[in-house]
Write a structure and sequence with these properties.
By secondary structure, the chain is α+β, with helices and mostly antiparallel strands. About 20% of the residues lie in helices and about 55% in strands. It contains one helix and three strands; from the N terminus they run βαββ. A hairpin with a 2-residue loop joins strand 2 and strand 3. The longest helix is centred in the middle third of the chain and has 15 residues. The termini are close together.
Length: about 70
């Protein structure tokens, strides 16, 4: 039987939402074994003087627990 767990993480990038997701999944994979997927729960941006300065995502990362 396979059992999975879901944990929420936040990640940011000055480039794009896609880059923030890639960085978040890559970092989670360094710490968590068996990462199987991620769901982007929220997206936010920081704005300064009318321009986007940072893209931020909150993700739910699913990983399989070891037997």
């Amino acid at each position: 039987m396979t059992v999975a767990r879901v944990t929420e993480i936040s990640s940011s990038s000055t480039q794009s939402f896609e880059d923030a997701v890639k960085k978040g999944v890559a970092r989670a994979s360094e710490t968590l074994r068996g990462v199987k997927g991620a769901w982007v729960k929220e997206q936010q941006v920081d704005v300064s003087e009318g321009a986007i300065t940072e893209f931020r995502v909150n993700m739910m990362v699913t990983f399989v627990l070891d037997d």
